């Protein structure tokens, strides 16, 4: 690659980064109430470490800086390490998408995290989770129409969040369904999305423009 080509590539990347963050800032201005504690950081106010972390996220599989990653950018090293863990759990873990998204929704509902729900409820439906089950979860109840494997994951995640442990029976059912790797990955999904939910709840991260919480006090 020639020097001129290299400089052109750098300028193009910088332009993409600034356009993306500028769009995020304009969305935040339109949709964020006065109580958003950690809103988007203007590009010219970012540290070099923050720019690197944001650029890595934008160039990764998510393709954007949004939601929990906006407040996490205050700690760029945490953001970078957390988003790499999340990339594995969301895209490469041993869990099939339908069960993974169910676990994320159980976590989002437990923490009453509306942004997390907003992102993952459509993904859960696309992955094959019944719309009636998603509605029941949003209402805080146990869906009546879960498939057998979904029921195992639901019980495991619900019990883990509620009790901070699981019973022998719940553990055995999850182990039989998922194996040891899948069971540990399921714990990882619950823990990772609990981290994101807690960060967004503390930051009071706003929903995108036009989106509404699926529960009254979300």
Explain what this protein looks like in three dimensions.
By secondary structure, this protein is an all-alpha fold. The protein folds into 2 domains: about 5-75, no CATH class; about 95-205, Up-down Bundle (AhpD-like), CATH 1.20.1290. It has 9 helices and no strands. Helix 2 (about 50-60) runs parallel beside helix 4 (about 75-90) and helix 8 (about 150-165) crosses helix 9 (about 170-205). The termini are far apart.
Structural class: mainly alpha
Largest sheet: none
- Classified in CATH, the superfamily of the largest domain is AhpD-like
CATH second-level architecture of the largest domain? Up-down Bundle
Reported by name, the CATH topology of the largest domain is AhpD-like
Q: Mean pLDDT, nearest integer?
A: 88
Can you give the helix content as a percent range? 55-70%
Q: Give the C-alpha Rg.
A: 19 Å
The 3D shape can be described as: globular
Kindly estimate the percentage of residues that lie in beta strands according to DSSP: under 5%
Q: What's the number of extended β-strand segments?
A: 0
Gap from first CA to last CA: 51 Å
């Amino acid at each position: 690659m020639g020097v001129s080509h290299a400089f052109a590539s750098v300028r193009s990347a910088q332009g993409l980064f600034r356009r993306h963050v500028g769009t995020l800032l304009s969305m935040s201005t339109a949709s964020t109430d006065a109580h958003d504690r950690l809103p988007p950081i203007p590009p010219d106010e970012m540290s070099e470490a923050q720019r690197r972390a944001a650029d890595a996220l934008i160039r990764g599989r998510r393709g954007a800086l949004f939601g929990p990653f906006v407040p996490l950018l205050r700690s760029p090293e945490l953001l970078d390490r957390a988003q790499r863990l999340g990339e594995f759990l969301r895209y490469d873990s041993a869990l099939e998408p339908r069960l993974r998204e169910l676990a994320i929704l159980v976590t989002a509902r437990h923490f009453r995290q509306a942004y997390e729900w907003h992102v993952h409820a459509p993904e859960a439906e696309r992955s094959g989770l019944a719309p009636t089950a998603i509605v029941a979860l949003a209402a805080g109840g146990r869906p009546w129409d879960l498939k057998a494997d979904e029921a195992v994951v639901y019980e495991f995640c619900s019990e883990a969040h509620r009790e901070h442990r699981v019973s022998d029976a719940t553990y055995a059912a999850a182990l039989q369904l998922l194996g040891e790797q899948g069971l540990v990955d399921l714990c990882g999904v619950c823990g990772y999305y609990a981290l994101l939910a807690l960060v967004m709840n503390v930051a009071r991260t706003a929903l995108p423009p036009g989106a509404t919480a699926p529960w009254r006090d979300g």
